[in-house]
């Protein structure tokens, strides 16, 4: 994990359980029957739901030009502790059956306000409240929308057609768009209160990975995949959190695992300082246009997925992971730390640390990121490196070294706690040292 990263997302996963479901399919929402009177049914709305989100509720204007959706994040992974925003209220302009462009998005779990009204007032304009702080007004001509609230105001021209492309001029990484600052789906650039930070076009020319940054207090990032489909643009996937980024240019639209599909990797994190509060995950673009999460099967519960890297030069990226099982054992920076390596097995990333033992030992360090590490922390870190690397003999020798280690009085209790933890660690049974000497059987 990169030093100084003070953003976090708890994404701990259960032992030998896939870290994400990876199917990219939408879950059938349950909607009250009275919505059938609006003239827009569930079948029309489902295609605009991004993968990983489900529809809780909606409101539709009488003329059916505007739709307000209440979205809920699906539990892709076991998110213990601090979790990212799990809800969003979005306003869409409807052009024709099945043709929509999102105009405004508020990250909230409060749902649609009970008094939300999308119909015009006497002068033909529309005004609706998205939550307790933000309102959207729409001109009588339906050509301009404005977001206003306690933190300022933002305006956009409402797109004249949903499939339009616009030239990108601000904050976009031209290396990953056709012809430099190339076109983006207008739907990705008309989101009230959000700025396009970077964008990457897939080789097919119709799929776009777009990172937008919110101007709201505390800030929020959303990484979305938009896809041109005939006469409209759909957002087919979305990750929203306090901090979402592509940390490397090589992470955008690359076949990371050499399975014939294009992938992307991204860092997603919520505010905080815990090691496991930020994870680098991945997703793939299927031939059917569906984005599917890449699955990770973790050898231990507390790990930090750090990102893809081809360690052996065979063209297939491994996925590095930080061993966070000893986080804050002495202090946050002065904690034992090690590395795992996950490798692609044809369907998911699984533990292959013993195959990359030299790499794990090369990356070994005395502690997390303290400038001066205690000898106790250093010894435990060596034990973790040897055990994770599959060097059982050296790991058992490190335990013996720990038993014989002389530590200051203030660390005596910590030393005993370390030995107790090693003796009862269910994930590293092969590296335990019995009183008689030989290791136990895994």
Verbal overview:
α4 (375-388) packs antiparallel against α5. The protein is built from six helices and 23 strands. It has a domain at 42-242. It is mostly beta strands. 12% of the residues lie in helices and 33% in strands. It has helices at residues 42-45, 186-189, 357-363, 375-388, 392-403, 412-424; strands spanning 7-8, 53-60, 66-73, 87-96, 99-107, 126-129, 134-138, 144-149, 152-157, 165-167, 183-185, 194-201, 207-214, 221-229, 232-241, 243-245, 262-271, 278-285, 291-293, 303-309, 318-323, 338-344, 349-351.
Secondary-structure map:
Blueprint: E1 7-8, H1 42-45, E2 53-60, E3 66-73, E4 87-96, E5 99-107, E6 126-129, E7 134-138, E8 144-149, E9 152-157, E10 165-167, E11 183-185, H2 186-189, E12 194-201, E13 207-214, E14 221-229, E15 232-241, E16 243-245, E17 262-271, E18 278-285, E19 291-293, E20 303-309, E21 318-323, E22 338-344, E23 349-351, H3 357-363, H4 375-388, H5 392-403, H6 412-424
Antiparallel strand pairs: 1-17, 2-3, 3-4, 4-5, 6-7, 7-8, 8-9, 10-11, 12-13, 13-14, 14-15, 16-17, 17-18, 18-19, 20-21, 21-22, 22-23
Helix pairs in contact: 4-5
Summary tags:
single chain; mainly beta; four-stranded antiparallel sheet; 33% strand; elongated; disordered N terminus; disordered C terminus
Q: What is the compact description of this entry?
A:
With 442 residues, the chain is mainly β. It has helices at 42-45, 186-189, 357-363, 375-388, 392-403, 412-424; strands at residues 7-8, 53-60, 66-73, 87-96, 99-107, 126-129, 134-138, 144-149, 152-157, 165-167, 183-185, 194-201, 207-214, 221-229, 232-241, 243-245, 262-271, 278-285, 291-293, 303-309, 318-323, 338-344, 349-351. A hairpin with an 8-residue loop joins strand 20 and strand 21 (318-323).
